[in-house]
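cache lookup: miss for this entity combination. No prior model stored, computing from scratch. Input as submitted by user K.M.:
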Amino acid sequence: MTITAAAPATVSFPALGTTAVLLVTDPVALDNARRVLETELAAIDLACSRFRDDSELSRANAAAGREVTVSLLFAEALQTAFRAAQLSDGTVDPTVGPAVSALGYDRTFAHVRPEDVRPAAVVRPAGWRSVRWDPARRRLRLPVGAGLDLGATAKALCADRAAARAARAAGCGVLISLGGDLSVAGEPPEHGWQVGIADDHAAPWHPDAPVVAVRDGGLATSGVTTRTWRRGGRTLHHLVDPATGDVTPPVWRTVSVAAASCVDANTAATAAIVRAEGAPDWLRHHRLPARLVRPDGSVLTLGGWPPDPAPGD
Amino acid sequence: MSQDERVTGIRAAHKRSQGLRRVGLTTIGVSVAAAAGSLALGTGYAQSVPTAASIPAQRPAATSPTTGDDGAQQPSAPSADPNSDDTRQGTSPHTLRRPAQPPTAVPAQPAPAAPPVTSGNS
């Protein structure tokens, strides 16, 4: 996804193993909004990173089998993850951590070995319903051997939190994108925030790529063509089917979803990838605007998502 | 049939009736115990398993443009700490929600000089 709007002010910088992009409608407010975003990023990283030994998530995983008390922010991230699991019928499951690690994504993606002739192990996740969670006391107990990976929802949660807070602090319209998890808050530009849709953020922007205007809520794209590596002759990616512990079949190259929040958009986009052939019916049921791209490049749009422009338009 | 035989028949019928009543009462007792056990088990699971019953509602943002039944708030939610301002927007505990306005098409255009870029690999 590429933000193509010529916004009054923008800044981008590396964060959470990807790129954070901040746009504000009032250039004077950029510094204020950036401070809010950086604070949120630091907090969510310390709470939810699975690549930091000192994160709450790492400590909770290390304490599997024992009860631990967690912070307010980590509790909110857990609640968000459990809600995503519930609303996605378990296709977005926070207990996929050991499965993702076993497949080879056991360190920051920049350090994942791109190729290994040895096959990856497939580990079936414990399942989110096996987690014991008391939200009132913020007490968490994972089953022995289980591990959390909040990557699917924590980044989106951070985008939502940061956008809302930054808009309040800056007093203007704000768009925040964290590696494709995009949240907007405050008064948008007159014609909305213009967001380009692409498979790979690192690829050069193509002028024929579709661009949509977003005015509220969130937008997220999940895909299986970026963040890939190879093990034992198989191309693997970071989206795991909780039912099997293996990568999802490549029925969709990317799925983009717009929703009332970035968390909802991310949940739906990830669930759609995992649901494979069942994704269109599930998205229709939730009435979510979505754009699904098949491996051959053909596109299916649903729920009021505008059709792609014809080439040359 | 003699009178003795009639008395014996009546006694036998009475005993059968008492036996059936005992069995019936035992069955009712077992059913009540089973129902109570199910309720206790269900309550236990509702408290220990993170299901909808234990996932608190998120407080809808004041600016939430959509309507729904998420006015019901559960103050036990971790995010409902009185010292913490609510930052979530547009979430409902019961459903994934549409944006107030779906994305609209924008005519194709050349990219700005240095477009900020994000990935789609969330």
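stored under new cache key. Strands of chain B lie at 104-106.
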